[in-house]
Design a protein that fits this description.
It is a single chain. With about 325 residues, the protein is α/β, with parallel strands linked by helices. It has two domains: about 150 residues, OB fold (Dihydrolipoamide Acetyltransferase, E2P); about 140 residues, Rossmann fold. The chain has nine helices and 16 strands. The protein has a six-stranded mixed beta sheet with strand order 8-1-2-11-10-9. Strands 3-6-7-5-4 form a five-stranded mixed beta sheet. Strand 4 and strand 5 form a beta hairpin. The longest helix has 16 residues. It is elongated. The termini are far apart.
Length: about 325
């Protein structure tokens, strides 16, 4: 079953940028409800003919062929809950074929429910707790129970399945001394991605960094800055913004759209850093006024783009 060509049509594809809406496919694992952005879902398929991979992660069942494509299959019940009677493979299990970060990966789930159109305002970020790493970024109260949004990028990073090319080497990026101390903000709901962005920017020589968990916190901070600064003094507090698209409460496209409507913030350089590399997503980023777009996890390219924007701003 193709999600893009069937069920999504029943709720309407989100064509406009900056509406702060998304469509979520709800599925079940271990008797619990989880969600994934429909923009990442290629198909929902039955599972057959899985070839095991020696020395692979325990949660990697192996590889399977889908027409002319060979993809890795992740046993999501096993990854999330370990080996229990409830997470044993079942003939009725389904595979979510997801596409993000320029790769396709299959995930075993127990069943798919349906697609819901939601506002990012209704999605609540999971609080950061020291010492606790979780692949859940946010939760939704939906029809009497919580739906957890999974951070598939973090899951895949643990398996080291990412074979997407890295553009450039951020450690070797040539950054002018006069932009090293310029303040850079970054917003991403993934704790792992925020840490990687900070590490890569630091290794590239940048020293004035501040991260946010979602678009709403970022907008609140920037909106307050606009009330006490003008365009000339703003750069002492923020010189560029790196933002994810998928974030609870306010997505990155809505955040960028808000910036462009603000007389003080309208010229702030914005780089969209997203795992969804679709043409539709690229068009939406252009529509709301993003200066540039980089696909995760191309951190080298991200550093190069940020450096270029800052150098242009200084000159």
């Amino acid at each position: 079953m193709s999600i893009v060509n069937t069920e999504a049509q029943n709720t309407g594809i989100l064509l406009d940028a900056g509406t702060n809406e998304l469509e979520v496919l709800v599925f079940r694992v271990g008797g619990q409800r989880f969600g994934v952005n429909v923009a990442k879902v290629r198909e929902v398929l039955s599972i057959s003919d899985v070839t095991s991979m020696p020395s692979a992660h325990d949660a990697i069942e192996g590889v399977t062929q889908i027409r002319d494509l060979v993809v890795s299959l992740v046993n999501l019940p096993k990854y999330l809950f370990g080996v229990t009677p409830e997470t044993q493979q079942n003939p009725t299990d389904q595979m979510l074929l997801l596409e993000f970060s320029q790769q396709m990966i299959g995930f075993r789930v127990e069943a798919t429910e349906r697609i819901y159109r939601l506002s990012w305002k209704d999605i609540v970020p999971v609080p950061n707790i020291a010492g606790m790493d979780s692949p859940i970024t946010s939760v939704i109260q939906l029809q009497g129970s919580l739906v957890s949004m999974l951070d598939f990028e973090t899951i895949v990073a643990e398996f080291d399945l990412d074979d997407s090319p890295q553009s450039g080497d951020c450690k070797q990026s040539q950054v002018c001394d006069d932009i090293h101390n310029l303040p850079i903000l970054y917003a991403d709901d993934s704790k792992l991605i925020r840490a990687r962005i900070k590490d890569e920017l630091t290794q590239a020589g940048f020293t004035n960094l501040r991260g946010f968990q979602d678009g709403a916190d970022t907008w609140e901070y920037l909106s307050a800055l606009s009330e006490s600064n003008d365009q000339k003094t703003l750069s002492t507090h923020v010189a560029t913004l790196i933002t994810d698209v998928e974030m609870p409460r306010m997505d990155g496209l809505t955040l960028t759209k808000n910036l462009r409507k603000n007389s003080v913030l309208q010229s702030l350089p914005v780089v969209v850093f997203s795992s969804i590399a679709s043409k539709d997503n690229e068009k939406k980023a252009v529509q709301v006024g993003a200066n540039s777009q980089v696909t995760k996890p191309h951190f080298g390219e991200l550093i190069d783009v940020v450096s270029k924007l800052l150098q242009e701003a200084v000159s």
